[in-house]
Amino acid sequence: MNRFLASALTAVSIVAAAPLFAQQADTQPAAVQAGNYAIDSSHTLVRFTVDHFGISEFYGTFPGASGTLSLDPKNLASAKLDVSVPVAKVSTTNKTLDGELAGPEWFDAAKYPVMRFVSTKVVRTGDRTADVFGNLTMHGVTHPVVLKAVFKAGAVNPLNKTYTIGFNATGVIKRTAFGVSKYAPLVSDDTTIAITAAFEKQAD
């Protein structure tokens, strides 16, 4: 196949697919469809950041989250969030470290396979922001945590035709409070949590 023909076929495929992605996601929270949602695990990620010996910041991720969200934009205070994260899936740039983090000296995934956050209260703080209060259970210990959430947008996913909404959220925990104290404070006790989450609307 010559370059001209290949370029022409590529252009045709892009034009044909254009209507699929032509929709504009709605960033207005008032437009969100009320109802029950489930996490889209493939497009949700939990990231943690610690200070590494005062030299650099170090990041890790937890893929594979699952959970539910009940949401009515007209009554945000009634929202309920319940999210579970599989600890054994912890991932960094170092496979050896991944195994250590999942092991008994850190998260101890064999004994405590899941981290879970269950909301207790949601307070609107701005047009697209809210504080989500809840209880985080990690490493067999439960403590209250506040996540600062930002609504990203809502739209029908053009691939699976499911109405989906997205949020970003951040929070800070002290890992030693949950019994994860290896190398503290050389590796910082304060641990920043950053979450990007997609939720798919469930059938009524």
Tags for this model:
204 residues; single chain; Lipocalin; mainly beta; 8-stranded antiparallel β-barrel; 2 helices
Task: Determine Rg (CA atoms, Å).
Answer: 20 Å
Mean pLDDT: 92
The domain tally reads: 1
What is the tally of helical segments?
2
Instruction: Flag low-confidence runs.
Output: 5-18
Largest sheet: 8 strands, antiparallel, barrel
CATH architecture: Beta Barrel
For the record, the CATH class is Mainly Beta
The computed structural class is mainly beta
Question: What is the 3D form?
Answer: globular
> In the CATH scheme, what's the topology name?
Lipocalin
State which percent range the strand residues make up. Answer: over 45%
CATH level-four homologous superfamily name: Lipid/polyisoprenoid-binding, YceI-like
State the total count of DSSP E strands: 10
Strand order of the largest sheet: 1-4-5-6-7-8-9-10
Query: In angstroms, what separates the terminal alpha carbons?
Result: 50 Å
H/E element sequence: HEEEEEHEEEEE
Task: Classify the helix fraction into a percent range.
Answer: 10-25%
Domain Lipid/polyisoprenoid-binding YceI-like: 36-200
Organism: Novosphingobium beihaiensis
Signal peptide: 1-22
Keywords: Signal
